[in-house]
């Protein structure tokens, strides 16, 4: 079946359905209406859970080779139609076509990894005789699917972040209900199309569109939904975690990622990598570079290179091959970023470049001397804005990098192995990239944060561990 997005159907228990109530999906660059999607009701969500109950049984009983076949075929489908997928990402979201192509190809990788990891969901034997009285027992544990997973996803990677939940869920024999971001639901529909084409049985996957604040709670609080896998902002994450009750929650939240540049770093490489890590997806990137701590000896030279590379960044039409950076997801978001920067400047920050908004576009922006007590100096900006700081020592850099409520990823540039290992030990983050910016990720690695950046880990193998429960089996033998 080919999905015609103009018909704006959502996938409910294996059927594409419309609803009278709809939500608009607009291109943030032009504000043009792309299509409308169903505004699902709480009853729709309850129905999706009823369908998923059937799906959970089907999925758990599906042999591993069949799960692998479906995941591989879905991956092949995305690959074959990758330009269509990339164009959808770049039309409904903020990404440029070049960024969107990378996301589409990472989605293929995520699904292929899921197919491979499906065969590695194993347990181990347990030596029961280690405990007195256990001599006559033999046994093992194996991992079983958790049942029904509720997945709530953000707008900034509208395809691959959905794949990071759907791929592992199917690999591990679960049913899954996806509630995609309201501003970018169409890439999630396209992913569902790939699974329908690959022959995923009905009821295993639903993609239900509607406002998180209206229908999210029905999914989050439902006793038959055994896990909520959430990626999004800390505010919604806290609300979801407190409403979920006694079920697993995995939280992939935000950050204001730091990068440390020591005086022995290759400044050309460090500035190029940090600029790219800062402005990817117009800075709407959970591991995007926000704070750069540079040693005093090289600060001026790094700053000059960083600002020059930022000024060379091309903003413009998302579908143009020349464009490096597109708009923010809405004009409201661009206004929020503008307000936050202006407030920091009023509090004493110095604007080095950027700071200009046109509609939903906000120029790549660099500041220094941003006060720690400003919103920009302490919170996630989630926009194309970078803060440069001069530091006197590695200890100071690490202390200031850790001085935040977040801890997702960090980057560091140095040739000094001792300094690198000290930083690895002392930085309180989920991942640290030496001689890369914080914005480095592959889909197979464990991914997630500490503090307000989240709970649990994604990355296919690690998501599968969260989506399965070990069950212990013991045989008591007569002799
Ligand atoms: P968001 O506003 O938190 O929304 C994320 C999702 O949650 C959307 O589907 C939203 O639905 C839904 N939602 C909002 N409130 C809800 C509620 N009370 N109950 C249930 N669902 C609710 O985040 P966003 O603006 O889309 O994304 C940006 C944030 O995501 C940033 O903070 C970024 O750092 C974070 N992020 C983290 C990672 C990671 O892996 N750590 C990756 C990407 C993004 P609606 O769209 O209908 O509001």
3D structure, described in words:
This protein is an alpha/beta fold and 479 residues long. It has 2 domains: 5-253 and 454-472, 3-Layer(aba) Sandwich (Aldehyde Dehydrogenase, Chain A, domain 1), CATH 3.40.605; 258-450, 3-Layer(aba) Sandwich (Aldehyde Dehydrogenase, Chain A, domain 2). It has 15 helices and 24 strands. The protein has helices spanning 42-61, 64-80, 82-92, 97-118, 160-171, 186-197, 212-221, 234-244, 267-279, 296-311, 331-346, 375-378, 394-402, 417-426, 460-466, and strands at 10-12, 15-17, 22-26, 33-38, 124-126, 137-145, 148-152, 175-179, 205-207, 227-231, 248-252, 258-261, 291-295, 350-353, 357-358, 361-362, 365-368, 385-391, 406-407, 409-413, 431-434, 450-451, 454-455, 468-476. α1 packs across α7. The model has no long low-confidence stretch (mean pLDDT 97). Bound molecules: NADP nicotinamide-adenine-dinucleotide phosphate. The site of NADP nicotinamide-adenine-dinucleotide phosphate has 31 residues, from α7 and α8.
